[in-house]
Write a structure and sequence with these properties.
The structure is a single chain. The chain has 6 helices and 2 strands; from the N terminus they run ααααααββ. The chain is mostly helical. It has 2 domains: 101 residues, no CATH class; 37 residues, no CATH class. Helix 2 packs across helix 3, helix 2 crosses helix 4 and helix 3 packs parallel to helix 5. It starts with a helix and ends in a 6-residue tail after the last strand.
Amino acid sequence: MKINACQELERYLNGAKVKNTTYHAIKNVEEVGGRKTLRQIVNVNKSPVTFSIALSQVRSYTGRNDRTFLRQALAWMLSTGSAYRLKAAINEFTPVPRIISAIENKTPLVQKWHKSFKPLTEGENLTTIPVKSLQVNGQNEIVGYTTT
C-alpha cells in the first residue's frame, strides 16, 4: 500500500525507514528548521517535499542563504502563507523585495482582493459592485463587473 510523504515523515519521526527521495527532502527541511518544524508539518498534514522545494526556490530566487531567513521562511509557510503560495509567487516572478518583506514581516503576499473577488457581505449583492476600468497599454481594461 502506498503512503504519502506526510505519512512517511511521521514514520521517519518514529524511527522507521523512508524512501530516499522523501528522506532527502526531510533532511533538507530538518537542517534548517529542526525536528520541531517537521512535527509542525505533520500536524498540518502537508508534504515535506513541498517545503523542501519551496526552501530551495526561495534560496535561489532571493539569493539569501542565511539560516535565520530560511527559518523565517519556514515559519511564514506554516503560519501566514503556505509552501504552495510561496512557490507560486516565485513562479509568477513576484519581486524579490516583496517576498523578502512578506517573510520578514510575517504578512501575506496577497493583501487586498479586488472588490469583484471579495465575498459579499450582508446587504450587498453583485449589482452594488460598480464597474471600474484601468488604463493598460493605452486601452481601458475592465477590472470589476456587475450583473445588471
